[in-house]
Amino acid sequence: MKYNQNHKIKQITESTLVIGVDIAKENHVARAQDARGIEFGKPMNIENSRAGFQRFRLWMKSLMREHAKPDVIVGFEPTGHYWMAFAQFLRHEGIKYVVVNPMHVKKSKELDDNSPTKNDVKDARVIAQLVKDGRYSEPQVPTGIYAELRNGMNLRDRLQEDLQRVRGRILNWLDRFFPEFHEVFKIWEGKAALMTLEAFPLPQEIINLGAEKILRHWKQEVKRAIGIKRANALVAAAKRSVGLTEGLSMARQELQSLMEQYQCLCGQMEQLMQDVEALLEQIPAVPYMMSIPGVGLVTVAGFLAEVGDLSNYTHPRQVQKLAGFNLRENTSGKFRGQTRITKRGRPKLRSLLYAAIRPMVAKNREFKQMHEYLTTRSENPLKKQQSMIALCCKLIRVLFSLGHKRVSYNGEKCLGHIRLQQIQNAA
Fold first, then answer.
1. pLDDT band, very low/low/confident/very high, at 427 (cuts 50, 70, 90)
2. What sequence ranges are listed for the domain Transposase IS116/IS110/IS902 C-terminal (predicted)?
3. Does 320 fall in a domain?
4. What is the extent of the structural domain holding 311?
């Protein structure tokens, strides 16, 4: 991502051996050629194992010696997660590797033979041709702390999905067996509500216990904001409940299983976020990035997990492009199409930034003023959604600047352009 097209092309010289690899789950296929596109040797099958990778290295070295090519570049499609082990082997061996866009492979496969045929051997040749023409990108594979952060935030996403699924199942259970529960507890994840669901969730159990025993049970853990009035309300709700009354034994077992899953997931999430916070403490730029009002630990951790080390980038536009926030426009003659974001790159990064900017527009003074200015300015006012996207790009620039320069957030500097514009409009 650091290099422009000219630089990419200049890296492929007469002394460069270009290898294209079609990635698969068990067996990859490699083909080699020179900078002009002349193919060397026969296609090679690479088993996805250490022995297969070593065979590939010996094959590559023999071609380099035979054709006097001291330099080599290996290109492949980032297919699923199957490419990661191969990329790690190349990195450890000091072999330069790049990735090509799968859409480019699909759209250029007919250039050589004018045929829509697709197979692994042909795709490897197409990939090598794309690399030769400089149509590739250099992936930013996270290492060290940043690799730990990415794995940790990916795990957090999966835990969130599992937790949301379990929450939905618990609500489903309540709707079937005790729909009046929500009249007593507006938030079922409160401490007293959870104690009720774990100990006596069924209406008949609540009636049998009575308000006094229920209150004594609650007071074991909850000392404030709960009293006999709430206990009486729970008993009254149980008496008028219209919940199902058949199959209660298995229903109780079902809820017990769901509550165990819920508690387990909550514990795992809490421990994970403690570990993520410990990782962030090792990155010097983090305190400066978190000095932005409205930006918290999850936002900074997710940003660095997706972007990696900020020193690998020279300009925030590179991060903007990585998130898919760069603009595209279709024009032809006098026709000018609507400008939209490309949505290429890392969707998780784009989603994270958009989720972060929404509360910032409401609570961060500077971003709120920028949002008002962008949507109400006299010339070319933006729609609210367009303004949110523009502010996502602004947040990228602010995070990038604070992380690079290691300075704290300054709201006046953030508003500098808008202040100047307002002064000019007033004049």
1. very low
2. 289-371
3. yes
4. 286-426
Is beta strand 97-99 parallel, antiparallel or unpaired with respect to 71-76? Answer: parallel
Structure tokens at 316: 């925030």
pLDDT digits (tens, 9 = 90+) for 154-163: 999 999 999 9
H helices of 200-283, where?
Answer: 203-209, 211-219, 228-239, 248-280
| Nearest Cα residue to 348 out of 327, 317, 324 | 324
Query: What's the Cα-to-Cα distance from 60 to each of 10, 64, 77, 121, 170, rounded to whole Å?
Result: 22, 6, 19, 17, 57
DSSP symbol at 296: -
Domain shared by 273 and 294, yes or no: no
CA atoms lying within 13 Å on the CB side of residue 95: 22
> Phi and psi of 189, rounded to 5°?
-95, 10
The verdict on 187 and 297 lying in the same domain is no
Which of 251, 277, 303 finishes a domain?
277
**pLDDT bracket for residue 421 (50, 70, 90):** low
Identify whether residues 421 and 296 lie together within a single domain: yes
The CATH number of whichever domain residue 69 belongs to comes to: 3.30.420.40
Neighbours of 313 (CB within 10 A): 19
User: Which residue type is seen at 357?
Assistant: I
Neighbours of 206 (CB within 10 A): 26
The CA-atom distances, in angstroms, between 74 and each of 25, 88, 115, 370 are 18, 13, 25, 45
Does 225 fall in a domain? Answer: yes
pLDDT number for residue 161: 97
- Residue 244 has a CB neighbour count (10 Å cut-off) of 14
Task: Give yes or no: residues 299 and 228 share one domain.
Answer: no
Residues 257 and 325 in one domain: no
Mark which of 250, 277, 304 sits at the end of a domain: 277
- Going by C-alpha positions, the residue among 328, 327, 304, 282 that lies closest to residue 396 is 304
Residues 6 or more apart in contact with residue 103 via CB below 8 angstroms:
none
- Does residue 213 sit in the same domain as residue 326? no
13/71 Cα distance (integer angstroms) = 9
**SS3 call for 298:** helix
Instruction: Note the pTM of the prediction, 2 decimals.
Output: 0.86
User: What is the enclosing helix (H) or strand (E) of 408?
Assistant: none
Sign of the CA dihedral running 141, 144, 149, 155: positive
Sequence letter at residue 17: L
State how far the Cα of 22 lies from the Cα of 124, in Å rounded to an integer.
5
pLDDT digits (tens, 9 = 90+) for 101-125: 998 999 998 888 888 888 999 999 9
The CATH number of the domain holding residue 269 is 1.10.287.4070
